[in-house]
Design goal:
The complex is a heterodimer.
Chain A lengths: L4 E16 L9 H21 L8 E16 L3 E5 L6 H8 L7 E7 L2 E4 L12 H12 L3 H15 L14 H13 L5 E4 L8 H16 L4 E5 L3 H7 L2 E6 L2 E7 H16 L13 E12 L7 E11 L3 E11 L4 E5 L2 E2 L2 E2 L2 E3 L2 E11 L5 E11 L4 E3 L5 E7 L5 E5 L12 E4 L4 E3 L3
Parallel strand pairs in A: 3-7, 3-8, 5-6, 6-7, 17-22
Antiparallel strand pairs in A: 1-2, 1-4, 8-9, 10-11, 11-17, 12-13, 12-16, 12-18, 14-15, 18-19, 18-20, 20-21, 22-23
Chain B lengths: L2 H5 L35 E5 L7 H7 L1 H15 L8 H21 L10 H23 L1 H4 L1 H4 L8 H28 L10 H25 L3 H15 L11 H7 L3 H13 L8 H25 L3 H4 L1
Helix pairs in contact in B: 3-8, 4-5, 4-8, 5-8, 5-9, 5-10, 5-12, 8-9, 9-12, 9-13, 12-13
The chains are: A alpha+beta, B mainly alpha.
Chain lengths: ~425, ~325
């Protein structure tokens, strides 16, 4: 271990006690109800005398939100923490920022920690924007002198100077969040712990915040721990990442590798998706998979995406489809239709499953996560099946060392036997009429 | 393993220093930039059941937060009210009028020495309102600031003590009223009035002990929220607010003084009214001891439980 390590966790664990209600009998007599409440009352009385916590429920179970977590973080590192909901990310941040005590193990921290687990902690609705800047700043650990020094900068960043003397309860929610984040963005501690707080405000403001985060991180000696579900901002900001899964560290290391593990794991759980319920009568999508994402060579220099998808039908049918590319928040970017000189291409399908293989050329997308939707149109009757979120992929780096990966989604299927090969861009289809 | 074992936070023994090979705890690392910033080299160890070593130092570090939370509570108090600060004047004034009429006129209880009855009532009411409002402000403060507790770290003692400042501000307003009443009735206080700040401090300490105890208990068991209003209402009649404690029979005087507020109110009257209001020394000493015990108990229980507040509120 070097002198550079600012946070070291050894065998860290956090335990909570949770209560469960026992199975209720179907018919309850008044006598049973009374007996149960009496039992509950004696137990609470025992807990009160013993100084224990009161937990509702008949059975008590212990639950480890974090278990045996070990890591070291060096000075100046920007570390992303990822994991599914309930993986223990926020608990880890709470322990590191001293809000709650660990139940096992120890953490050694060198330097002062400021935590930003929520935007606008302690904002008082009755106080004016000006007053709340001082209040919130002090709560986040800034000294008065520091706030005075940065006051103009904070107001400038928030863009609410006109309403500085209005109580914040009269603010729009957007203004509220901007003011709150403006204070938080000017926090300048040695170690900054940030929970998912960037997911607020409009796109422009988010960009500004990300820029500010990068600025804080870029300054020498500032260590940042950053929880987010926005994998794009994690890969943009952090060199190192920690992947948590049900309280354990599953992967730790370079961000790119950890994100890959995360993607692979998430896929492992969702593999072999089968459409449940009775099979619909119309032609429908059974599954899809991204086969490759490549950067096209010059002079086109765009993106080449190959994907396969499977359509199932009960009886012979004629279908066409469209493939839509959407941004991670669902804004449409482009739609790709199989067209020929004569109009839309129709494909006649035999009963059973048919697999299509599509190669799509499109302009280079910027870094970020994207969604692919595939809609199936049955030509007689024109039944349309909308599948808005079939596949996901992510462009991590669009420059020289082009990096991309697929993000698992529920329609993923494996093992294809290709029936149709088509190149959507050129709208040439092999073996299809 | 029994239930009590599971719930005990101290079940897992604190680990010793890390095994050899992993190198001892962080070396001091004398970097040139950090020469001035002792904070950046400050090492915090978080462990189950570990007592905070520099807790009181930390409390000092957070004095600005204390000031700003106190200022927040004070400035929010009368926001969006029409008469604002006047509320702080009206409440004690009307109480004084009622007590003077009920105890002084109807019941015909004697005042201390030559002091006018309104002055007697007011010198009892000042410390009583200070005591009772600290008790009620502070005991609900942790629940009221649950969002802060679950999102930011600071020594939790900051919250109830900052809430107590509101009561002190109200006290100062009431004190100005006492001065006016004395001027009105033409009563001149004795020279002992210089001791008054000491008794104000005593009143604050007397209320802070039970307040800390109850606020910490309130986080875990919300039953205590219902005890406070009852206690405050009850205490107003049990304590010598509307009458002089000299009317209590001599045989019961010592027992009566176990109520810490009795010592505080007697002290106040001794300061303002002077010689005529004799300080009953054994009782006063008993009050002091009770105040001390409660304060010790309150701080101790608060410190012992504050690490789990975030999990419970």
């Amino acid at each position: 271990m070097t002198a550079d390590v600012v946070i070291r966790a050894e065998g860290l664990g956090k335990r909570y006690l949770i209560g469960h209600q026992a199975e209720r009998e179907r018919y309850t007599a008044l006598r049973d109800v009374l007996a149960r409440s009496l039992k509950g009352l004696t137990r609470s009385a025992r807990d009160l005398i013993g100084g224990r916590q009161l937990i509702a429920g008949d059975e008590i179970e212990e639950f480890w939100a974090l278990k045996d977590v070990n890591f070291e973080i060096r000075r100046g590192e920007v570390v992303g923490i990822i994991g599914r909901n309930g993986a223990g990310k926020s608990t880890l941040l709470k322990v590191l920022s001293r809000i709650t005590e660990p139940s096992a193990g120890r953490v050694t921290i060198k330097g002062r920690v400021a935590s930003l687990l929520e935007v606008g902690t302690g904002f008082h609705p009755e106080l004016s924007g000006r007053e709340n800047i001082y209040l919130n700043g002090a709560i986040l650990g800034m000294s008065r002198a520091e706030i005075v020094r940065k006051f103009d900068e904070i107001v400038d960043f928030s863009g609410v100077e006109k309403f500085l003397d209005t109580p914040v309860k009269r603010y729009s929610s957007g203004m509220y969040v901007r003011l709150a984040f403006a204070v938080a963005a000017h926090l300048d501690p040695e170690i900054l712990v940030v929970d998912e707080v960037l997911a607020v405000g409009d796109a422009e403001f988010q960009k500004k915040c990300l820029g500010k985060m990068g600025e804080i991180a870029g300054k020498g000696g500032r260590t940042v721990l950053f929880v987010s579900h926005a994998l794009a901002s994690i890969s943009q900001l952090c060199q190192t990442a920690i992947l948590l899964d049900s309280g354990h560290i599953q992967s730790i290391g370079a961000t790119h590798d950890v994100l890959a593990t995360y993607a692979a794991n998430a896929g492992g759980q969702r593999a072999g998706f089968e459409r449940s319920g009775p099979m619909p009568s119309h032609p429908h999508l059974r599954g899809a998979q991204i086969l490759s994402i490549e950067k096209a060579a010059l002079p086109e220099a765009g993106l080449k995406l190959t994907l396969a998808f499977e359509i199932e039908t009960r009886e012979q049918a004629s279908v066409t489809f469209d493939i839509r590319i959407l941004s991670s928040i669902g804004a449409a970017i482009c739609v790709l239709l199989p067209l020929s000189e004569q109009g839309p291409l129709n494909f006649s399908l035999q009963p059973g499953r048919t697999i299509f293989n599509a190669a799509i050329r499109m302009p280079q997308l910027t870094t970020g996560e994207y969604i692919i939707g595939i809609d199936i149109v049955a030509v007689p009757g024109a039944h349309v099946e909308m599948n808005t979120e079939v596949l996901r992929f992510c462009i991590d780096d669009l420059l020289w060392n082009f990096k991309s990966r697929t993000v698992p989604s529920q329609y993923q299927i494996g093992n294809f036997v290709l029936s149709y090969d088509l190149c959507v861009n050129d709208w040439q289809c092999d073996g299809v009429g | 393993m029994s239930l009590s074992d599971i719930t005990s936070e101290r079940l897992i023994p604190a680990k010793g220093p890390p095994a050899d090979g992993a190198a001892p705890a962080l070396p001091p690392a004398p970097t040139p930039a950090a020469a001035a910033a002792s904070d950046s080299e400050r090492i915090t160890v978080l462990e189950a059941g570990r007592a905070e070593r520099n807790y009181w130092g930390d409390l000092w570090h957070y004095r600005e937060l204390f000031a700003i939370l106190a200022w927040r509570d004070v400035s929010v108090r009368y926001k969006q009210t029409v008469i604002g600060l006047l509320w702080a004047v009206i409440r004690p004034f009307l109480t004084m009028v009622v007590f003077t009429v009920v105890f002084g006129r109807l019941a015909g209880l004697p005042s201390d020495g030559g002091a006018p009855y309104p002055v007697l009532v007011f010198t009892g009411m000042l410390p009583w309102f200070l005591f009772s409002s600290i008790l009620s402000e502070a005991s609900g403060s942790l629940i009221g600031n649950a969002n802060l507790i679950s999102k930011v770290y600071f020594p939790r003692l900051v919250i109830p003590t900052a809430a107590a400042v509101v009561a002190v501000v109200d006290f100062l307003i009431n004190f100005a009223m006492l001065v006016l009443i004395m001027a009105w009735t033409g009563f001149v206080p004795s020279w002992r009035v210089v001791w008054l700040p000491a008794f104000v401090l005593l009143a604050v300490l007397a209320s802070l002990g039970p307040a800390l105890l109850i606020t910490a208990l309130n986080v875990k068991y919300r039953d205590f929220r219902y005890i406070i209003p009852f206690l405050v209402q009850f205490g107003l009649y049990v304590s010598p607010v509307g009458f002089s404690s000299a009317v209590v029979p001599e045989a019961w005087r010592f027992l009566y003084s176990l109520n810490p507020v009795v010592g505080v109110i007697d002290g106040f009257r001794w300061c303002v009214i002077g010689e005529a209001s004799r300080l009953y020394l054994p009782g006063f000493a008993a009050s002091l001891v009770v105040v001390g015990v409660f304060l010790w108990l309150g701080v101790r229980y608060f410190r012992a439980t504050e690490r789990t507040f975030a999990d419970m509120v």
